[in-house]
Amino acid sequence: MNSCIGNNIKSLRLLHGLTQLEFASRIGCTKSLIALIETGKRDASSKLIQKLCDRFSIRPDRIYDKDFLSVLREGGAESHEKTA
Q1: pTM here?
Q2: 53 pLDDT band (50/70/90 cuts)?
Q3: In angstroms, rounded to a whole number, what is the distance separating the alpha carbons of residues 6 and 63?
Q4: d(CA 49, CA 5)
């Protein structure tokens, strides 16, 4: 399991001030799946990663970056939520 991606997804969610349920609903999955991914108990599928990257305007390669949180804070990950 990739805890780096899980931590990065959690950081993205918290940066946007979203609960796991709110985050999950924005990318079309369940709260329990987000919880499992964030805790490293389940890997995020490539389809899910693509959905969240599209939704939050993040380059897909950035979600794998160990320095993802610092990049987000600096605005370098193009992180802003697209409205539906």
Answers
A1: 0.82
A2: very high
A3: 9
A4: 9
